[in-house]
Amino acid sequence: MRNLLPLLAASLCLAFLASAAPAGAKEAPAYIAIGDSLAFGVGASDPATQGYVAITHDALQRSERYRQRGLELINLAVPGATTSDLLLPGGQMERAVIEIKERREDTSSADDNVEIIAVSIGGNDVLALAAADSPCVADPQAAECQDRLQEMLGTLEDDLTQALRRLREAAPKADIIVLDIYSSLSGRGTGPELVADLAVREMNVVIERVVSDPELGVKPVGVYPLFRGRASQLVAADDLHPNDDGHAVIAEVVLAAIEGREPVFPEDLMTPAAVEEIARSPLGEGGLLPVSQDEDSGGTSLPLFLAVAIPAALLGFAAVVGAYRSARGR
Length: 330
Description:
The chain is an alpha/beta fold. 49% of the residues lie in helices and 8% in strands. A five-stranded parallel β-sheet has the order 2-1-3-4-5, with helices on both faces. The radius of gyration is 23 Å and the shape is globular.
């Protein structure tokens, strides 16, 4: 009996330590997704399993890096969110920072920090210009519309910069991934396609300017080249969000950025045009950098052209966006 006392005492001690652990203690590192309907998985047949965030998480869980350690997914994305919405009290940014700090301060585990943060935002910022109360709907060339456009681009840059700064300060060692924006009209052969493509490029130039700040230590992910000329192949029936194939190719470029390798795509998704586009730099170069005509030649500069073209392109989105929001009850 005396020999059993040490074993009994040890068992009681272990039971006490287990019960004393915080109820909200974290046991595995985490992957946080921030964004809008794209990160939420809208357009996929099953957002919980076929959205790009879910596919990325599943692949990471099976990777050598996380096979033994595990990886918890925290998807904070909200369909319809704009870049400004990220910064609202109680919004995605606040919730992400709280989660990061709780895990960092949790002493019950040494391997439960947030290691990956993916941000996909901005699509709803430009779509807001096609809202019913926007001056761009009545007259895309009106001064009020041009002011709203410039205000939108400036707000996007300021808010995205602030959001990424907060994330980097809260998680100095985490991989922060930022996706650019694709055009859901690219390759459809419709009138608004060209101007819509230019509008998306201009948005991506702003995103590139933000993520190129070396102090943020952000990894850019080029989604725009994947969808260029292939909307009919990669966009869902709502003409706005990626379908299963679209989410799958987005997940692959995100995984490649996280793992520091080149993306590998299924052969049935690799048309010659797709290969050429994907080979380009992710942001800011090789098709995303605006190219203006020589002013001496008498041609119109791209900024002036965009001032008219972008709002006009948004009118091509208006019917699609209206139908989508109506279906969601917004």
